[in-house]
Amino acid sequence: MTDPMWLPVSRRTLIRAGAWAAPVIASAVAVPARTTSPPVEVAAVAVATTIDGYPALAVESTEAGVPLPSGQYFFTATGGVAPTAGVFVVSPDLGAYTSPAPPGATTAMVILPEDHPVTSFTAYIITSALPDGIDPDASLTVSLPLGIGATVALLPDGVGGPEAATYGPTGMHWPARTPRVDDTFDAVVEVPPTWEAIDAAIRQLHASHPDGKAKIVVQPGQLPLGAGARSSANGVLQGIGGAGRAWRILVVPRDGWGTVTGSGSVFAYESEGYSFRGVNGVALVGFDFTQQGVVVRSCDDFALAWSTFGVLNVTANEYPTSGVELIECVLPDQLDLDGDRMAFRVANGYSIEGIEMRGCYVAPSYRAASSSVHTDTLQTSATGGGFIRNLTFADSVFFHSSSQTLQFEYAENVSFTGTALIGGLRGAGRYPFGGDRFVPTAENTLWGGRAEQPHAANNVLLDRTIVMGAISEYWQIVQATAVTLSRPTGAMPAEADVRVDEQFATRDQALDPEWLEQHCPLPTPSRLSAVWSALVA
Length: 537
Fold this sequence. Notes:
Blueprint: E1 44-51, E2 54-61, E3 71-77, E4 88-91, E5 98-99, E6 107-112, E7 120-125, E8 139-143, E9 150-153, E10 187-191, H1 195-208, E11 214-218, E12 221-222, E13 237-241, E14 249-253, E15 260-261, H2 269-272, E16 274-285, E17 288-297, E18 300-316, E19 321-331, E20 342-347, E21 352-358, E22 361-362, E23 378-383, E24 388-394, E25 397-399, E26 406-407, E27 411-417, E28 420-422, E29 444-447, E30 457-463, E31 466-468, E32 470-471, E33 475-481, E34 483-485, E35 498-500, H3 513-519, H4 525-531
């Protein structure tokens, strides 16, 4: 066995199954600069390897002999695997620094305190001890405090390409450090569907159980109007909780998804939507905001999960925003709206440091034919300084809006794993354009940057991902593994593992409905109720 303290960091490290099982590798190797953006601090690197024959993830400092950054290293398993005690192993043994997942959870942690001496470690799953019925595409992913994580296939002989995947909500993703609905709790509070009651319960439980498992169950009903989902809006929940709790406080409808809804119209979301402002150490799971807009503002260690939205934004403009998880967040219906469907925005020199989207589904936004408003499915932007760093997209799907699918600027350290990015008119069979809507003539799927401001997305990793459409030259892709493209592109690195699939080649041809339903099932209310049935304990 290789000494884990001296595991080599190699971009060519592969596990035994060959090309389709090649892991995402976060490389610290210098890449020729294509932009004029400031350098990004990457103090640690993760790489897929093997240990005792098991697929593993090695983490080490980018500077020899220098301890790894302090903080939380999250190891999240998919495919029915739970990284619990007995199957989740860290070598060398880090003792109390290691926190296996509790039964039924999917995320284990390594927590390195200030002034620790650890310069590297390796984590793996004893796959021989796993029960039968594990998804052959099961994987283990690590997220780092400073640096880009990596993914390794746990059962590499069974790994398939991206065309074998399912994109969107499946009920298999769950936010980190968030107890499940049916866990044993130290405290449970039931409240009526009002923001005042939820606010008071969060404050009470954070004070009385700062390190315990706490749950707030919300009775069925309609939450009242908010003050808007603008980037400057006051919050319906504001200045509550605390980052770094052992467990996030779980806020969940008592009777499952669809039983607690919002008020107001998505077309008036700027004045009637909901802002979560300065909410820390909290997870809201299972809410139906399909007809509302929501903005996450100045939050740290906050999650939205197993919920539906009309518009969903994240912003940092008065404090940094960090550690935000959007887990199986679904924007199910097309919107005839002049504006972005989702946006990550920073302003006034503040930055977003870490957003994870896993198992998400984002339908398009179509602007009026007479409108010139930029209308993207997901846009990142900065006004007055700031960056959007450490973005993770996994098992998700994005459909093309009137302008672009993803329109990025000022984005650093971006990874896509098992994600479908659908450009052009390929999604128009499911989401048709009305006669009064602007119909795009391009297929700008990964877009952004321009000659006078070339920074779109830097340090981008693609793994088992489909890109249907064009990729801007201002996207700096440094690693591409098992990637399917609809057309050749010069945006890929020299050692990219990519193929072109002719079935996706035509920009203005709608995708086969059978392909869509197999790989991107329409998130109807009945389907969501089924895949999220675990919300009803």
